[in-house]
Every structure is written in C-alpha cells, then in structure tokens.
Amino acid sequence: MLAFFQDTAVAVASNTGLGIGAGLAAGLAAVGAGLGIGRIGGAAGEGIARQPEAADAIKGSALIFAAFVEGVALFAAVIGLMLATK
Amino acid sequence: MLAKRLLITIWLCLLAAVALPAQEGSASASDGAASHQGAGGDDTAHAEHAGTKKTLAMSNSEIFQIQFTHSVPYPIYNYTTDADGKKVGGLLTVYNVQPWQWTCLGLMLLVFFPVVGSFKRQRVGKWTRIMRGFCLWVRDEMVYSVMGKEEGRAFVPLFFFMFFFIVFQNVIGLIPSTGHSYPMAIYTPTGTPFVTAPLAMITLALMLTLGMKKNGVFGFFKGLIPHGVPGYLLPIIVPIELAGLIIKPVALTIRLFANMLSGHLVIAAAIGLVFLFAKMLEGSPVSYLTALPCVGMAIFIYIIEAFVTLLQAYIFTFLSINFIHQSMHQEH
Fold first, then answer.
1. Closest Cβ–Cβ partner in B59, B141, B258 for A78
2. What is the pLDDT of residues B1-44, one digit of tens each?
3. Cα(B261)–Cα(B268) distance, rounded to whole angstroms?
4. What's phi and psi for B76, nearest 5 deg?
C-alpha cells in the first residue's frame, strides 16, 4: 500500500500546476452550470405550477435552455481535459 | 420468447468477446517486447501496449491511460503509402470510429426499410409501429412546430436522417464491449469532434445558402444586424454577429461530442477505481468487495448516459432546425 501512495505522490508532484488548473476548471464549471440549470429548473417548475396546461411547451424549452448552459460548462470541461492530458 | 432469445444471443456475444481478445493477447505476447519500446508516441500500438502488462504491474497513470486512450480516435488502416512503401496517414485513412458509422448506416437501413414498406402494404408490425411513432414525433414536434407545415415539409427527410443517425451513433456506444478490433470493440462515433463537426457543418451550409437564397446575399448579412442600432455601435456589433454565425455550429459540435465523451470518461474512471483499489490492496480478496460500489457507480452513470444519448440527439436536431429557420426569417 505504501508503494501505491508513493507512486501517486510522484505522479501528483510531477504536474501539480496542471492538475490544480484542470480541477479548478472542472469545479468552477460545475458551480456555474449548477447555478444556471437550477434557475432554469426552478422557473420551469414555477411556470408549470401556475399554468399546468402549458407544461409540454415549458418542458421542451427548459431542456433547450439547459442545453445552452450545459454547453458552456462542457467547454470548460473540454479545456480541463486538455490541461489534464497535457 | 423473443426476450429469451435476445438474452441468449447477448450472452453468446459476451462469451465470444471474452474468448477472442484472449487469443489476440497470447498472439501479441510473443512480439510484445518489440512493440513495447515504440509504444510511447505511436498511436497504432494501443492494442499491444494494453496486452503486455499485468494490471498489478502497471503504475496508476498507466491504468488510466489505457482506459482513456480508446476514447480518442486513432487510425486503424492506412491506404496511402509513401516512397518507402510504408503506410502513412492520408485522405483515405480509416479511424476506429468509422466502421461503426458504417454499421450505424446499415442498421438504419435495416430498421427503416420496413417502415417505408409498411405504408404500401397495410400490415404494421410491432417494431415498425414504434419507429413510425418516433418518425411522427420528429416531424410534428420538432420540424413542424418550428418551421410550420408548408415550409417544413421539404426539411423533414434531412432532419429524420440527422436525428436518427445521431441517435444510432450515440446508442451503439452504450453497448458494453471488449477487445481491440472492429467487431468486438465498440466506439461511440459521436464521441469525437471529427464526427460531430461535419454534421454541424451541414447546418452551417444550410444556414448560409438558404438564408442567402431567401433574403439575397446582401440582405442576409444586413439582416444579421439588429434593426435600429445606432451607427457608432456598428464596429462592435458587426464582428460580434459575424462571430456568432460561426460560433453556433462550433457550439453544436462541442456540445454533442463533449457530452458523449464525458459520460464515457466518467464510466471509465469509475471502472478504473476497481483496478486502483485492487492495486492498492495488492490483489488481496478484499478488493472484490471494494469493486462493488465502483461498479454500482458506473451503472448509475450508465443510466444517466442512456438518457443523455437521446436528449443530445434531440437538442442537436432541434437547435439545427431553429438556426436554419432563424437565418431564413431574420428579424428586421
């Protein structure tokens, strides 16, 4: 088990900066996307509660808006991947 | 009855999949030492590289490397040869995802020929009925709801193809597989930007050509600029709108490929934890217990992924419809 942690420590120490950068990219993107999709979901739920007959239209457009937010988060994820695999 | 037959077929496939790579591994073990030296930067040496080392002998980064290399496309066959007769990458290079694209096209023919035929003969089978409902949904809820009935009629076949091609490519990557060569190792074609970018380029080409046909070449670029913008803002607005024209298909590309790739990477990471724990415990029997939560997590992500495959195909097609409709009917 000691050899395992030594191995891990060497791998981490050899590219610390890149690892921190990639982790930050992934984490901050998750924070931003979480805030955005949370607001979209909340508003969609509120809209459906007020007007249940419009539920289908609201669901469809909420998915599209969520996809826009998610797209931006995934740009950050791709950059994180590029950093991590450098 | 059908479900039973299907299950038996799946189990036979799995057995064959386990048996075949084992033979491959023993065959490549003889020249393993030679190929291992060149494995550093050589893209075609994945299979040999994975086959030579035991899991417990690998370092942590090697375990993850082997898991992740298969999510990046690499050439499997080169047609062009250089002066020395050595095969090099060229225009006709076949990448590992391309056989699966052809398989998807073949599957689409198999699935949709009966659907087309069912309109001539009045008999409709169970499977045909499901696919007819799918087609109706794409036509009514996606194309007609945005473009309207008269204008959307001409676009229906294109978006049928776009939607179902992406769905088949996404879903075919969900089939668990093992091995190093075509029929045994299944890759997600849409998990690479080289597959999704051409699909988005179809959208861009249609946006430009149909927008210019409808509004005139000058009218199209004039229509990009919102009406009533004061003159001193034009130097800022014009580059932004022109960049927006290019960014739309780029965003389509990255959204689809990153969604498909990230799901597979998370599953690969969860499965990789199994091997990391086994290495950490030095191969003791306790590692069978630590493997259970890792596999559970992988299955959980897999279920989410199964939803995402359909959702991303829907979003790609729906945004394409919206973009093409917007460039044809610009707001003035």
1. B258
2. 566 666 666 666 655 554 444 444 333 333 333 333 333 333 34
3. 10
4. -110, -20
Quote the pTM value: 0.78
Which amino acid makes up residue B148? G
Is B27 domain-assigned? Answer: no
In chain A, whose CA is at the least distance from the CA of B65?
A: A85
Number of domains, chain B: 1
C-alpha dist (Å) from residue B101 to A27, B28, B112, B192, B302: 34, 28, 16, 12, 21
Domain ranges of chain A: 16-84
pLDDT tens digits, B180-197: 677 777 888 898 888 999
Helix B156-172, helix B98-120: angle, nearest 10: 130
Q: How far A72 CA sits from the closest chain B CA (Å)? A: 8
At the fourth CATH level, the homologous superfamily of domain A16-84 is F1F0 ATP synthase subunit C (1.20.20.10)
- Burial class (CB within 10 angstroms; exposed 0-12, middle 13-18, buried 19+) of B324: buried
Q: What is the mean pLDDT of residues B112-138?
A: 87
**Which of A7, A56, A61 to probe the B interface (max B CBs under 10 A)?**
A7
* pLDDT computed for residue A82 by the predictor: 77
**Within-domain flag for B43:** no
- The whole domain housing B261 covers 55-328
Model confidence at B136, pLDDT cuts 50, 70, 90, reads very high
- Whether residue B18 lies inside any domain: the answer is no
Find tokens 């375990």 and name the residue.
Answer: B63
Which of A61, A78, A82 to probe the B interface (max B CBs under 10 A)? A78
User: Exposed, middle or buried by CB within 10 Å (0-12, 13-18, 19+), for B163?
Assistant: buried
pLDDT in tens for each of the 86 residues of chain A? 677 777 767 766 666 777 788 888 889 999 999 999 999 999 999 999 999 999 888 988 888 888 888 888 888 888 887 777 66
The answer to the question of residue B20 being in a domain is: no
What ipTM was estimated for this complex? Answer: 0.74
Residue B265 burial (CB count, 10 A): 20
**Considering CB atoms only, which of A11, A64, A75 is closest to B315?**
A64
Distance between CA B102 and CA B187 in Å, rounded?
A: 12
Question: What stretch of H or E contains B77?
Answer: strand B75-77
